[in-house]
Specification:
mainly alpha, 13 helices, 444 residues, 9 strands, 3-stranded mixed β-sheet, elongated, two-stranded antiparallel ribbon
């Protein structure tokens, strides 16, 4: 289930006996250097730059005896070490999302001729049944809470017929994108701690995780585009049907992720692809789907500026229900935009201060990211007066039915001319929605 480190272990005893040549008796015999902290694997150039000062010092001190220069393997960067000496580093605490016992040490021998043997990681044992860290627990609780709140919100929009319109359909798609992202995150967390963290299953799960994550940004862009068309480009409203918004929200991200996945599959890695899934490792190719995320956030910011300008300059004197509805929708998008922008920035950029500050930063990021879905459900559903009035109306109707009893209801407790449409129209005149009255028909 863990990483296969057998290919990196040291040679056998027979091979070790050949390391010390008879003519090398003037060299230190099988000495051991001081313990060095583990340094994650970098390329050979980076490893040499990391130990440049140590290499220069050994060049001066051991000019006659010789030493092995810094060497990078797929796991660690080894420091310069005198010949016939064993370099010792601390075991890694985590490798490919698997925990290891970092109280043990790994070793590598520098032979008489200044060349390294294979690295010996046999003492680095995998730790089983490790309790989740604080950040993982925050994500799990937040995403679970978000899934529950988003499911309730989607259920409300689906159950009440009077809430079915193009605007709420867009809200539901945004909520679905968050729900699918959270579901894939939980599946990814489980898969990385089971035997499914290898090969094709891991690649497939991580690709889906990235895809659903980017759809959340595109559906937020659709929210901004829809409001922009309603307020600013009113003449083009009829040209934007639901199928266009579906194309933007679901198909466009699929195109970016498909290109990313194809290029990612051709990127070579130092790790053995049969033993680990390195698609979580950051790479420049990731900007194929990260750049569109930044672009749609900037476009939404432009939409917001244009919407606010129209509301302030052209609709200031017209203090109507429709104007107030635009203000409410703009405020909701204005609250979500900084939320998405800030949390996205801190996912691609993280400071590297001392350990305590980094721990605080990681936990704050976990809280912000895990509460995004709940914030969307709160602003677009639970705090929406349209939804609140619809729930109150059906709750009042249910109470009336219970109080009247089945016999009275058979004789007709509801007006014959009542319908979801007439009810919706009457409520909209009392200002309980975020869209104008002409946006009632379901999107098609």
């Amino acid at each position: 289930m863990g990483n296969d480190l057998s290919g990196l272990e040291g040679p056998s005893d027979a091979t070790s006996a050949e390391m010390l040549r008879p003519d090398a008796m003037d060299y230190p015999s099988n000495a051991t250097v001081d313990l060095v902290d583990y340094v994650a694997a970098v390329n050979q150039t980076g490893c040499e730059e990391l130990y440049a000062n140590e290499t220069l010092a050994m060049t001066r001190e051991l000019s006659t005896l010789g030493f092995c220069g810094p060497m990078a393997d797929p796991v660690a960067c080894w420091p310069p070490t005198p010949v016939n000496t064993t370099a010792v580093i601390r075991c890694f605490a985590e490798l490919n999302f698997i925990r290891y016992d970092d109280s043990q040490n790994a070793s590598r021998f520098c032979m008489w001729n200044g060349t390294w043997t294979k690295s010996n990681y046999s003492a680095c044992k995998e730790i089983f049944n490790v309790p989740p860290d604080v950040e993982t627990s925050i994500y799990f609780v937040g995403y679970t809470f978000g899934l529950i709140s988003l499911s309730v919100a989607v259920g409300i929009f689906t159950y009440f017929k009077e809430l079915r319109c193009l605007r709420n359909t867009i809200h539901m798609n945004l909520m679905w994108s968050y729900m699918l992202t959270y579901t894939m995150w939980i599946i990814t967390l489980i898969s990385l701690n089971t035997s499914f963290n290898v090969s094709v299953p891991c690649v497939f799960i991580i690709t889906l995780l990235h895809y659903f994550h980017i759809t959340t940004f595109f559906w937020m862009f659709v929210e901004g585009l829809y409001l922009y068309i309603l307020v600013v480009e009113t003449l083009t409203r009829e040209n934007f049907k639901l199928r266009i918004y579906l194309l933007i929200g679901w198909v466009f991200p699929l195109c970016f992720i498909a290109v990313w996945a194809i290029l990612k599959s051709f990127i070579s890695t130092e790790d053995d692809p049969a033993n680990s899934c390195d698609w979580f490792n950051p790479h420049l190719v990731d900007w194929i789907f990260q750049a569109p995320q930044v672009a749609v956030l900037l476009l939404n910011l432009i939409f917001l500026v244009a919407i606010m300008w129209v509301l302030v300059t052209k609709l200031r004197s017209a203090n109507t229900v429709e104007t107030q509805q635009y203000h409410k929708a703009a405020k909701a998008l204005l609250v979500l935009m900084p939320l998405l922008g800030v949390t996205y920035v801190i996912t691609i950029w993280a400071p590297t201060p001392d350990a305590d500050s980094k721990r605080i930063f990681e936990r704050a990021r976990a809280v912000l990211l895990s509460l995004q879905g709940f914030t969307v459900a709160l602003l677009y559903c639970f705090l929406n007066t349209e939804v609140q009035n619809a729930v109150r109306h059906h709750l009042a109707t249910w109470k009336t039915r219970r109080s009247l009893g089945p016999n009275r209801l058979r004789s007709g407790s509801r007006s014959k001319d009542w319908s979801p449409r007439s009810r919706t129209e009457s409520i909209r005149f009392t200002e309980w929605s975020l869209v104008p009255p002409d946006d009632i028909e379901p999107g098609s």
